[in-house]
Write a structure and sequence with these properties.
There is one protein chain. By secondary structure, this protein is of the alpha+beta class. The chain folds into two domains: about 30-110, no CATH class; about 120-235, no CATH class. The chain contains five helices and 15 strands. The strands form three sheets. The chain has a seven-stranded mixed beta sheet with strand order 4-3-8-11-12-1-13. It has a six-stranded antiparallel beta sheet with strand order 7-6-5-2-9-10, with no helix packed on it. β5 and β6 (about 65-70) form a beta hairpin. α2 packs across α3, α2 runs antiparallel to α4 and α2 packs across α5. The protein is elongated and about 60 Å long. The chain starts with 16 loop residues before the first strand and ends in a 20-residue tail after the last strand.
């Protein structure tokens, strides 16, 4: 399969996004758009169909192209994206935000990728992985570092069809996002804050979380914790890496 996401689309999810693999080479899947949506050809962005009240059908491949309630002749890669902030998608019963990219491969099997805003991705993954005992400053340091990891994962976008496997990182979409209000608030408070130098996922395992909690209990704030753990980088206030270092208690510059 060629990569349909290399082409920039005017219908991209709001804000920086990460592509999470949900289904790989399956015969079919049950996809529901709950709310307003639009379907385009993933490779060209050409309009195919849309709806204002949702849609739910089995999606599967055929020799003539993909089918999701209706047939898309000679179209083997589609992108279904929300046209309302309220729209979400259900894939085999699990709720997701962002867009769905469906790619037909060999033997008419389909692969499905969730192109989700990184802030929503963090809300989902950290809601499960973060301990409720983490202090505010340790949690802030973790969120900023995890956001940096997510951006690092997107570096090979032109070479790969997805950035990360949902199964491998325990990604369960929108349904788990509200489990921890502290995580929700910290993600909002640190929006777009990242480290200037990339960080790999292997660097923020269990021992990293234990260390940052220990440092926070010793009175260090999030900025000081990160400087201790990653001495050769600094926090910047947005993903363009164009601003000066700030601490967690600093006020980010206004955003459009």
């Amino acid at each position: 399969m060629t990569n349909p996401l290399n082409r920039q689309s005017s219908h991209a999810a709001k804000g920086p996004s990460i592509r999470v693999l949900l289904k790989k080479n399956v015969n079919s899947a049950y996809l529901e758009a709950k709310g307003e949506y639009r379907v385009v050809a993933a490779r060209t962005g050409s309009y195919l169909s849309s709806g204002i009240s949702g849609k739910r059908f089995i999606i599967h491949g055929m020799k003539e192209g993909l089918r999701w309630g209706e047939e898309y002749p000679d179209i083997y890669q589609i992108k279904v994206f929300p046209t309302s902030d309220e729209t979400t998608f259900f894939l085999d019963g699990i709720q997701y935000r962002g867009a769905m990219v469906i790619m037909q491969g060999e033997d008419t099997r389909v692969t499905i990728v969730n192109e989700v805003p990184i802030e929503d991705y963090l809300r989902s993954t950290l809601a499960i992985d973060v301990s409720a005992s983490l202090s505010k400053e340790a949690l802030a340091a973790l969120v900023i570092t995890a956001r940096t990891v997510a951006f690092t994962m997107t570096n090979d976008r032109f070479a790969n069809l997805w950035d990360v496997s949902g199964e491998e990182i325990h990604y369960f979409g929108e349904g788990v996002c509200l489990q921890d209000r502290c995580v929700e608030q910290t993600i909002a408070d640190t929006k777009y804050m990242v480290l200037q130098k990339g960080v790999e996922a292997s660097e923020i395992g269990k021992h990293f979380i234990e260390r940052i909690q220990e440092l926070s209990l010793r009175g260090l704030n999030a900025n000081e914790i990160i400087r201790r753990e990653f001495p050769h980088t600094k926090i910047v206030s947005d993903y363009t890496h164009s601003t000066s270092r700030i601490g967690i208690s600093a006020t980010p510059k206004p955003r459009a």
